[in-house]
Each structure stands twice: as structure tokens, then as C-alpha cells.
Amino acid sequence: MAKNTDSNVYTVVFAVIMVVVVGAILAFVASSLNGKIKENERLETQQNILYAMGENQDEEPYTGTGSVNFIPAEKAETEFKKYIKKQYVLQGDEMREDPEAFTIDIKKEEELAKKTDYQRRLPLFIGERDNQEFYIIPMRGKGLWDAIWGYLALNNDLEVQGVYFDHASETPGLGANIKERYFMDDFHGEKILDENNNLEGITVAKGNMDPLNERKDDFKVDAISGATITGDGVTAMINNTLDMYLPYLLKLSKK
């Protein structure tokens, strides 16, 4: 007896079978790749931390046209162990070493911190390069359209030695340029504290009147034209993060 392939029942049954089969295949593929995805995320995090502290393959001197060049992924693990001397987890009054601190999910910690009975875990990385010590802290904030994030590296005087920024979906050619080298390099040398060690932070300022960013004690960097809201998001992200970390940073630097 021939099947009635034009019937509604046949169509529904066929659709259900296809959904189940395709779903099973996708679930298998996702499960198979899960380990690889997590490993890639680990390496990317290590590359970003290293980039912020200046361990990268950027061309020097910077001419205004150079692109961002990370340590190759196949070398990230080795270089990370070489340059990152200690990893800490900060939680309340506690500061403990943890070799896996870089795997802490900042977004998840941010959500958990909304509960009144939870103390947020803050990762802190101590790096060393060219006989200089770096304090590298992760950041997360909100841009124009979605999340922005990055890393900020400070020296013992708590002056910025490097940054790395990234975003989920900022506008190409405008807010998306926070991850371009010409913007990130402007932060190098910026001070975050006033003469009394009070936090001033850094403002991404429109009309900064310092396009070459030669003043490093004005607590400002030049904004990206046409990306005011993204710039405001970077400002808030940096200063909110520094506010959380400052007590620990002052203790470490003995300022």
C-alpha cells in the first residue's frame, strides 16, 4: 500500500523525525567539540593577559597603522607560565593564590554578586617582564550594543603599562575600534591616582585637546570619533573595576 505523503500526519511525523535526527547530530558535534572550545578559550584568555602586559608580537615602533598581534596560540601556554608569576583570587578580605584564577568567569561572578550573601571573586595576575612587575586585572562592562571587556596592566607605581579591549557587537569603524592598537596604545603611561593616592581613574574624553595623548597626568585619553557611548562604557568599565581592586593594589604596591 503506497504511503500518502501529502497528508498532514505524514508531514508532521516527517518533520518531528528530522528535528530529532538533526538535533541529535548537533548535540553530538557540540559535545565532541566542547573540550576543544574550552581549550581555545583558555588560550585566548592567556593571549589577552599577555598582550596587556606588553608580551605580544606588535611591530615597534608603532607608526599609527600597525595591527594587534598576539603571541601565537601554540606558544600561549608556555609564555603564560613564563611571564605570569602568580595568580590570585581576591574575595572579601581574603587574597589566596590559585594557578587557575585566569579561568574564573567574570560575567558569572558579576551576576552572582547581585546576591547580598555572595562575595565576588576577583582574579589578579602578577606578571614579570624585563625586570618590571605588572599587576593585570580583568574588566567587563557595557558598550553601545552589548558587552565590552578587557585587561588592564599596571606597574608598581600603579601607572598603566598596557591594555587590551574587546567587544561583542560594537559598530564597525566606530565603537568597534576600541580593539584597535591606535586606541589601546594611548593608555600606556596614564596615571590613575592623584598625589594623595585617591582614585581618579581614566576617562575616555571627547574634546580632550590632547590628540597625541602626551599628557599622562590628566587622567584622560582621547575618545574615538562617533563612538561616545562606547567610550563612556570603557570609562565606566575601567573605573568601576579599579574601584573594586584598589585596596588590594595599594597593599601590593605599598603606596
Describe the structure.
The chain has one domain (44-253). The protein contains five helices and eight strands. It has helices at residues 8-52, 73-83, 106-112, 181-184, 228-253, and strands at residues 84-91, 94-97, 122-129, 132-142, 147-154, 160-167, 203-205, 220-222. The strands form two sheets. The protein has a six-stranded antiparallel beta sheet, with helices on both faces. Strands 7-8 form a two-stranded parallel sheet. The radius of gyration is 23 Å and the shape is globular. The mean pLDDT is 90. It is found in: Cell membrane. Composed of six subunits; NqrA, NqrB, NqrC, NqrD, NqrE and NqrF. Keywords: Cell inner membrane, Cell membrane, Flavoprotein, FMN, Ion transport, Membrane, NAD, Oxidoreductase, Phosphoprotein, Sodium, Sodium transport, Translocase, Transmembrane, Transmembrane helix, Transport, Ubiquinone. This is Na(+)-translocating NADH-quinone reductase subunit C.
Short description:
One of its GO terms (biological process) is sodium ion transport. The chain is an alpha+beta fold. The protein contains five helices and eight strands.
